[in-house]
Every structure is written in C-alpha cells, then in structure tokens.
Design goal:
- It contains one helix and 22 strands.
- It is mainly β.
- The chain has a five-stranded antiparallel β-sheet, with no helix packed on it.
- The longest helix has 4 residues.
- The chain is globular and about 75 Å long.
- About 7% of the residues have low confidence.
C-alpha cells in the first residue's frame, strides 16, 4: 500500500528478476508518491500523485483519502481521474482535497498449480540490519511452516514457493522482527490464489535458482550463512558442495530443508 499526504508516504520495494511464464509475483511498488504542497492560485490547476507497481498478473490500483475510497467508476468526480496508477486532482481545493492519500494494489496473485511463486517483503528502512523474517498465513499468530517446497530468505524476507499447490490458497503477510529493539511489524496481506493447470495437467518446469548467495568474504574464525533455493516442478533438491572437493567442511550445518548452509569457525581450508 502506498500512502501520500497532500502529503504522501509510500512503501517501495526492490525489483527482482523472475521467469514470468512460470512464476507469479508481486505487488512490487516501483514508484512512490511524494509529499505535495499546492497553492490554489497555481496556474497549473492540477496535482498528480504517482503510484506504480509491478506484478504478475498486472497490478490494478485503488486510491483513498483518509478512510474514504475514491470510487471513480461508481461515483465519477470532476476533480479526480486515474492515469495508470497515478491519481490526478484537477482544480484542488484546501477544504475538500487536503489530507492523506493511500494507493493500494490489492488484487490477488494468481498462479497456476505446478508453477513457482515469489511473494516479496519490504522491511522498514530505518530498522537495524539484524532482523528475522517469517510469514503470517491468514491470521496472526499462525505462521507458515517452511519445508522443501517453501522457503523464506533471511536476507530479503521474500517467500519462495517452488511449486504452488491448491492448498496454498490464502492470505500472506511478511512478519519482520528485530531482537535488538524488541519490536515486530508486518505487511499488508497478499492474497495467493492457485488456479487449475491448463488442460487439467500440471506442466513440468526445470529447476530455476531463485535464491543465490553472493560472493562472500568472511573473517577468520567467524560464522557465515549461505542461502540457495530453486523453483521448479518437480520440487528441486538442493545439494551443497565445495568446489573441487567431495565433502563439505566438518564445521558445517544444513537447515531449512537444504536451503541454508551454515559454516562455523571459518578457516582457510
């Protein structure tokens, strides 16, 4: 949800590269509205508040002022118009139009059964770097249980579903906790709706690595965690190995059904 205060505030998320024919995702807000100060004597006679999100299927938008939804289809208004996701106010007046505006993208994410899905999390920018991520399923405090098919990155907070099944239908919210400040926040719920595959039979998709750890430098004797997860049908198996070696170092541990490799007391070996 994007918010603005005529004055405006908005949640912005980073982009991600996805295989769109096999993956549903979003919404990803790419453009945010800015606080606006408008002079009624301005010759321009209009205000444009920007809101743009990327999603698969494509996003649709709704705006509201405070708690009042601007229903342009049901209740046309000479002052309001929608251009893409942008709200345009023509000849704005202080008493009628000043206030806080919110841009919302609430359409469900539809994904064919058998395809992969990625739901994106946007943690607060001002929070400490050390946070943990979980996803609420339908209602708090019911948290999604991760397994070989479902993975939550502790680097980005994004939820990855390797192969969507009918049982995945529901509403999902990213839950971010900071042990340093002892507080938690959660995002608006994202509806996920699996749809029957074409011709009643799931397509098979090759493994597509969606979470890949970057080149990592570690201090001697420190601990590091690497993540890896792939989408695909059938659900891919994650196997870790050290380049040019048959075995992993003895000081390792694998968790998250193979998606996370922990290396303790890192040495030169």
């Amino acid at each position: 949800m994007a918010a603005a205060v005529l004055q405006l505030l908005l949640l912005v998320s980073t982009s991600v590269s996805l295989s769109e024919d096999a993956t549903g995702y979003g919404p990803i807000f790419e453009e945010e509205p800015l606080d606006v100060v408008y002079n009624e004597d301005s010759p321009d006679g209009r205000i444009s508040m920007n809101c743009r999100a990327r999603a698969n299927p494509p996003a649709s938008y709704r705006w509201r002022r405070e708690t009042w939804e601007i229903k342009l289809m049901e209740l046309p208004d000479e002052h309001y118009s929608l251009v893409g996701g942008n709200l345009v106010i023509t000849n704005p007046r202080q008493k009628k139009h000043a206030g806080s505006y919110f841009c919302e993208e609430r359409d469900p994410v539809y994904v064919k059964e058998g395809q992969g899905a990625v739901l994106l999390c946007v943690p607060p920018k001002a929070w400490p770097a050390e946070v943990t991520y979980r996803w609420i399923y339908n209602e708090f405090p019911v948290f999604l249980q991760t397994d070989q098919r479902r993975f939550v990155s502790q680097r980005t907070g994004n939820l990855y579903i390797a192969r969507v099944e009918a049982q995945d239908v529901g509403n999902y919210s990213c839950f971010v906790s900071s042990p340093i400040i002892g507080k938690s926040v959660f995002s608006k719920f994202i509806p996920l709706i699996p749809t029957p595959p074409d011709e009643g039979e799931e397509r098979r998709y090759p493994a597509d690595i969606a979470v890949m750890f970057p080149d990592t430098t570690a201090m001697l004797a420190s601990n590091i965690t690497l993540e890896c997860f792939a989408l695909g049908n059938p659900v891919p198996d994650i196997v870790w190995r050290k380049v040019d070696c048959t075995d992993l170092p003895a000081n390792h541990q694998i968790s998250a059904s193979g998606g996370r490799l922990h290396l303790y007391n890192v040495q030169y070996e």
